[in-house]
């Protein structure tokens, strides 16, 4: 056994101990809260509650302590820990420590658990009689979350490698927990009565049996089978490299610095986006827990009040988290847009949509008791989908279809187990109570609010389903090879193969045929695919949220007067929306009255994407109706206007989405690809968006824009590129000028080359549009680790005197004068006794007469002469003064004429019209949700006071 | 018939038909052989970069196209011209997914997705010699 030097083992030991403690207390909390929920006697139930609380509070504080420990080792840069080595480096700025913490899977799970713990504390304080069942669900989920970072190993490994100091190894740590738990349960069993006492008496032996089982299972050694990845794993536990055979490995080169945080993630978005998003994820469990609690206790109405408050707050936070992701992608990443229907984006959007559907059905159910069942299902489904999206993004299954999935951690089966347990339990609860759930005997009336709100919720569910199916294609591929699905698909295929040419049935055959390939690729154009579906969803939702505001709950029939006024009202709103849409579509060029049809060469009327026109009409409809509802029905009472703001925001967002999506264009020449012009046609115009801009030159772009690349400078590991844009109108007079400064991040490699890591865009904002610019320098396209390209140019010697001139391919060179002062150069250090001579040259471009200077140094040091090479890479020239011939009054100047390396950047410049409306609309939606949530919380409190 | 039943039927009908549309939209990953058979239609191909063949991106001539050779999963190698700038760390990609069409003997791609090894530092760790014997 090797005694390693310089490790800080205590932190990992304490941390691992806390992980086990958090695991055990989560189990204990779940058990006691569950038993407490089922207990009829109040005194015993109260005792269970006490145990549950103590266990959960211990659990929560363990999680917080684990996080603090990880921060400590990250700040102290203890690189012997894999998590530190993988996410921190010596050069990483302190402000990115948080970002580094949740870059990895373990850290982000811990962040999630942290929020769950905080939510648990709040629920213990506020949930009142719902505390026991709700906390049972929360603790149950926490068991699995700790399970993901447990770090237990089975089967194999080095048994000799375990030393037997108490607390210094895993036996000691788990022994201590076992002791603590046994003691705890023993004390508690004395305080309880009845069946609880009996149960506890049995239960207190459980930790000992568990420990015995683990030891007998030999799982305390690093082995082949792993359960969960602990953030406290040592480098030598995870990586198997020869350096770990040395006790001194901490001093080796690769251990002195970590790999650091991915430069793409080094910005403030990485500091604020994950905590918001994970708080959003974490809060979705609360409405789900209330739903399960409602089923559990069989009180099908009361749970909705608190669940609704939490759902509103959760939707606001999760929505803000998703929005932040969109803004981040747009502002700081080079994806060229705010939403790309990437699986990772979809995975967080889908639960949000289902949550919104749940909020609507709950509103219905609370006043009418219709839709009670769907409220249960929506909330539970929302949390299930959150877990499913975790599975998608963290199991590595998305590898081929997503640009930003987490790296694999081997959690597949653990996540599957979690999903299976959750689905089974919630289904069991639902089945158990399904007969009791109240359903009104009478059908909803077709003019009632409850009916149309339910239809709206169905539309939302449908939208979620469509997105999920396409996102799950890699899962479908994996599942379709597993029995019994494989045989089912085969059977389906053989049945429908008989109908290959029959209308409708043939598409079933196609479906099974695609499934049977086990190799389904996502649609060729994912964005267009989703847009085509979601466009119609958006139209339906906009229409519904426009007129349903004016319907009333439990309204069986409309009285004639109301019918008339309602009809009048809706028709006039629709007409107004249509009128508004005319300038908004034809005025902006989205639609045109007359256009030239290239197919038949005739001039036709009304060209353009009519679906977008329809969408804009519907968006205006919802904006108009909601605004008038605010003014005439709510009489400007802003406190009640949460739903109005949200629906208004939805309408505004739709308009922004249409403009920024359908009318986004690149201001570089759309046919810039000379080689591919005409080959791919207009298959994908967006790809022709790059344009090369040499330094100092001005390049014409489309739409009257020109760009010039004027300057660049370095700051840390970033290089900034200054781009000057000019916009001229048709007459050539300048109507706008602006500067953008996109940058790129790089590493400097050992061979001196720069390695490109990430390009960060810079965007010029206007009220009506954004100009998004991105610059990538020439060196980013070369392999930085490749050796210098073989150079075929030869050194050519010239015997010249001061004042002489000679020509190269593109330049003429004038030998101006000699300078014998001590030169300041990076590659030269003056030593006493040196005799330096600097030949000063002027180089002029033959065509442009542009002049450059070059100083070529020759020096004598201790009777030896040295020549340094002076390089002018942009001109492709190299000079070297190889000898001085005083007798002839001449020098021997050698030069090399190479291919010039021009300084240029490849830029993208995209215009996003109306994008401000997207942000405004989304913010209004979130604000509305939050406002409703806060009002409900306040209303509840004031009612409690009364 | 109750309204909820009608609603349910409509929902099921829409669900099935959109499932059909999705199935129609979805393609399968193919190889170069199939892509050659389906000339002119857009396909998706998974493969690996051929490092021994030329990778060429000359932004001074055309910043919107670069070419390389790719081996599909059956080992068939074809030239690819991609209608994009050359992605960063292209040489180190483990796997490439292309969307595009086969024309003549060249695959023209308009979408490219790379799978890159996340930790190349790990290599360095493996290769570091035992200096503390």
Query: Can you tell me the residue ranges of chain A where pLDDT is under 50 for at least 5 consecutive residues?
Result: 159-168, 670-686
Radius of gyration of chain B: 22 Å
- The radius of gyration computed from the alpha-carbon positions of chain A, rounded to a whole number of angstroms, is 35 Å
User: What fraction, in percent, of the residue positions of chain A are helical?
Assistant: 40-55%
Please give the alpha-carbon distance between the first and last residues of chain A. 71 Å
Write up what this structure looks like.
Chain A is an alpha+beta fold. Among the domains of chain A are: 8-261, no CATH class; 796-897, no CATH class. Helices cover 49% and strands 16% of the residues of chain A. In chain A, the strands form six sheets. In chain A, strands 8, 9, 10, 11, 12 and 13 form a six-stranded antiparallel sheet that branches. In chain A, strands 6, 7, 14, 15 and 25 form a five-stranded antiparallel sheet that branches. In chain A, strand 22 and strand 23 (877-885) form a beta hairpin. Residues 129-133 of chain B have low confidence and may be disordered. Chain B has three helices and six strands; from the N terminus they run αβαβββββα. In chain B, a hairpin with a 4-residue loop joins strand 3 and strand 4 (77-82). Chain B has a domain at 29-117: Nucleic acid-binding proteins (OB fold (Dihydrolipoamide Acetyltransferase, E2P), Beta Barrel). Classes of the chains: A alpha+beta (946), B alpha/beta (133). Chains A and B meet through helix 17, helix 20, strand 3, strand 7 and strand 13 of A and helix 1, strand 1, strand 2, strand 5 and strand 6 of B.
């Amino acid at each position: 056994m090797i005694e390693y030097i310089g490790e800080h083992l205590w932190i990992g030991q304490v941390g691992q101990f806390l992980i086990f403690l958090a695991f055990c207390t989560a189990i204990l909390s779940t058990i006691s809260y569950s038993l407490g929920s089922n207990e009829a006697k109040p005194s015993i139930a109260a005792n269970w509650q006490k145990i549950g609380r103590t266990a959960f509070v211990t659990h929560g504080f363990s999680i917080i302590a684990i996080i603090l420990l990880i921060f400590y080792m990250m700040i102290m840069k203890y690189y012997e820990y894999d998590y530190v080595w993988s996410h921190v480096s010596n050069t990483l700025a302190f402000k990115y420590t948080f970002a580094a913490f949740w870059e990895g899977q373990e850290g982000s799970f811990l962040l999630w658990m942290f929020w769950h713990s905080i939510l648990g504390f709040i629920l213990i304080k506020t949930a009142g009689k719902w505390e026991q069942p709700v906390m049972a669900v929360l603790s149950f989920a926490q068991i699995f979350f700790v399970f993901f970072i447990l770090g237990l190993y089975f089967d194999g490994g080095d048994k000799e490698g375990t030393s037997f100091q108490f607390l210094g190894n895993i036996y000691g740590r788990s022994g201590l927990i076992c002791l603590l738990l046994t003691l705890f349960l023993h004390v508690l069993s004395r305080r309880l009565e009845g069946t609880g006492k009996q149960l506890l008496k049995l239960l207190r032996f459980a930790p000992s049996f568990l420990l015995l089982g683990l030891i007998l299972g030999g799982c305390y050694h690093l082995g082949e089978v792993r359960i969960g990845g602990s953030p406290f794993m040592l480098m030598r536990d995870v990586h198997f490299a020869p350096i770990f055979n040395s006790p001194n490995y901490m001093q080796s080169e690769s251990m002195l610095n970590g790999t650091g945080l991915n430069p793409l993630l080094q910005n403030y978005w990485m500091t604020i986006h994950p905590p918001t998003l994970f708080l959003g994820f974490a809060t979705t469990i609360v409405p789900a827990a209330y739903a399960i609690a409602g089923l559990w206790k069989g009180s099908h109405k009361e749970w909705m009040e608190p669940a609704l408050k939490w759902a509103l707050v959760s939707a606001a936070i999760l929505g803000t988290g998703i929005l932040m992701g969109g803004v981040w992608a747009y502002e700081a990443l080079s994806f060229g847009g705010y939403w790309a229907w990437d699986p990772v984006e979809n995975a967080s959007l889908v639960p949000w949509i289902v949550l919104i559907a749940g909020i609507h059905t709950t509103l219905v159910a609370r006043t009418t008791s219709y839709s009670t069942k769907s409220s249960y299902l929506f909330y539970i489904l929302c949390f299930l989908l959150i877990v499913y999206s975790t599975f998608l993004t963290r199991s590595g299954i998305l590898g081929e279809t997503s640009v930003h999935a987490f790296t694999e951690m081997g959690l597949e089966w653990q996540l599957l187990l979690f999903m299976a347990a959750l689905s089974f339990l919630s289904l069991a609860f639902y089945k158990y109570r399904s007969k009791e759930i109240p359903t009104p005997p009478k059908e909803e009336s077709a003019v009632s609010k409850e009916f149309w709100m339910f239809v709206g919720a169905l539309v939302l569910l449908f939208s979620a389903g469509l997105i999920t199916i396409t996102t799950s294609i890699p899962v479908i591929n994996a599942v379709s090879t597993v029995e019994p699905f494989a045989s089912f698909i085969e059977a389906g295929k053989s049945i429908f193969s008989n109908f290959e040419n029959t209308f409708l049935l043939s598409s079933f055959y196609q479906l099974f045929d695609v499934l049977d390939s086990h190799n389904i690729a996502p649609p060729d154009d994912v964005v267009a695919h989703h847009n085509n579906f979601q466009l119609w969803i958006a139209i339906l939702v906009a229409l519904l949220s426009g007129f349903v505001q004016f319907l009333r709950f439990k309204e069986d029939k409309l009285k004639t007067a109301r019918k008339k006024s309602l009809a009048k009202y809706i028709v006039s709103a629709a007409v107004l929306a249509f009128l508004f849409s005319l300038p908004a579509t034809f005025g902006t060029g989205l639609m045109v009255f007359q256009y030239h049809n290239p197919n038949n060469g005739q001039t036709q009327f009304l060209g353009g994407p009519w679906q977008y026109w329809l969408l804009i009409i519907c968006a205006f409809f919802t904006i108009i109706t909601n605004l008038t509802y605010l003014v005439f029905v709510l009489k400007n009472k802003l406190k009640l206007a949460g739903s109005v703001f949200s629906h208004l925001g939805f309408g505004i967002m739709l308009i922004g989405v249409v403009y920024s999506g359908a009318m986004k264009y690149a201001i570089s020449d759309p046919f810039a690809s000379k080689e591919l012009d005409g080959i791919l046609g207009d298959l994908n115009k967006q790809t022709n968006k790059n344009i090369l801009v040499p330094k100092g030159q001005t390049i014409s772009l489309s739409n009257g824009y020109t760009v010039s690349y004027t300057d660049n400078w370095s700051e840390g590991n970033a290089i900034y590129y200054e781009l000057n844009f000019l916009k001229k109108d048709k007459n050539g007079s300048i109507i706008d000028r602006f500067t953008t400064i996109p940058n790129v991040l790089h590493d400097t490699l050992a061979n001196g080359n720069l390695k490109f890591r990430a390009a960060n865009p810079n965007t010029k904002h206007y009220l009506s549009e954004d100009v998004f610019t991105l610059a990538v320098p020439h060196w980013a396209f070369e392999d930085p680790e490749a050796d210098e390209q073989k150079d075929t140019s030869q050194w050519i010697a010239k015997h010249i005197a001061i004042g002489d001139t000679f020509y190269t391919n593109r330049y003429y060179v004038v030998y101006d004068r000699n300078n014998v002062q001590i030169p300041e150069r990076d590659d030269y250090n003056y030593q006493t006794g040196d005799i330096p001579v600097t030949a000063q040259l002027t180089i002029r471009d033959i065509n442009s007469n542009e002049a450059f200077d070059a100083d070529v140094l020759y020096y004598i040091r201790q009777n030896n002469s040295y020549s340094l090479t002076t390089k002018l890479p942009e001109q492709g020239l190299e000079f070297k003064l190889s000898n001085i011939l005083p007798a002839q009054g001449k020098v021997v100047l050698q030069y090399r004429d190479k291919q010039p390396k021009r300084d240029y950047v490849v830029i993208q410049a995209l215009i996003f019209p109306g994008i401000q409306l997207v942000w405004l609309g989304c913010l209004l939606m979130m604000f509305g949700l939050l406002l409703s949530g806060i009002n409900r919380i306040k209303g509840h409190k004031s009612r409690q006071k009364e | 018939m109750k309204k909820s039943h009608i609603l349910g039927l409509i929902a099921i009908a829409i669900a099935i038909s959109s499932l059909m549309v999705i199935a129609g939209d979805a393609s399968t990953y193919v190889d170069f052989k199939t892509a050659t058979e389906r000339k002119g239609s857009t396909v998706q191909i998974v493969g690996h970069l051929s490092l021994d063949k030329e990778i060429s991106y000359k932004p001074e001539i055309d910043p919107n196209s670069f070419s390389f050779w790719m081996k599909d999963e059956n080992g068939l190698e074809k030239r690819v011209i991609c209608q994009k700038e050359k992605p960063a760390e292209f040489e180190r990609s483990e796997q490439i997914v292309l969307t595009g069409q086969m024309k003549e003997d060249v695959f023209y791609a308009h979408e490219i997705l790379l799978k890159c090894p996340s930790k190349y530092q790990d290599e360095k760790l493996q290769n570091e010699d035992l200096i503390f014997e």
